């Protein structure tokens, strides 16, 4: 989970988190993050299969912001 400069959240999947964050911050990542740089990594999680990662990404993206904030609070992640 990334925190964008406009305080929005962005979720995705990759097999190299550090490289992907750098790509987003270079303006070569997702269209969503290009105009919301810099981004900051808030949370990452490993999955055993690509399918499991994609399912988690889909579930994350379809939650309201309040649910995402509750998740961060439960994991003691400060984003404000």
Descriptive report:
The chain is mainly alpha-helical and 80 residues long. It contains 4 helices and 3 strands; from the N terminus they run E-E-H-H-E-H-H. The chain has helices at 17-25, 31-34, 50-61, 65-74, and strands at 2-3, 9-10, 40-41. The mean pLDDT is 95. Pfam families: GIY-YIG (PF01541). Residues 1-70 form the GIY-YIG domain. This is GIY-YIG domain-containing protein. InterPro entries: GIY-YIG_endonuc, GIY-YIG_endonuc_sf, UPF0213_domain.
Question: How would you sum up this structure in a few lines?
Answer:
With about 80 residues, the protein is mainly α. Helices cover about 45% and strands about 10% of the residues. It has one domain (about 1-75).
Largest sheet: 3 strands, antiparallel
Query: What is the helix content?
Result: 40-55%
Beta strand count: 3
Distance between the termini: 14 Å
- Order of strands in the sheet with most strands: 2-1-3
The pLDDT mean sits at 95
Uncertain regions spanning at least 5 consecutive residues: none
The tally of helices reads 4
Shape: globular
Count of domain modules: 1
Order of helices and strands: EEHHEHH
Strand content: 5-15%
Name the structural class.
Answer: mainly alpha
What integer value in Å does the Rg equal?
A: 12 Å
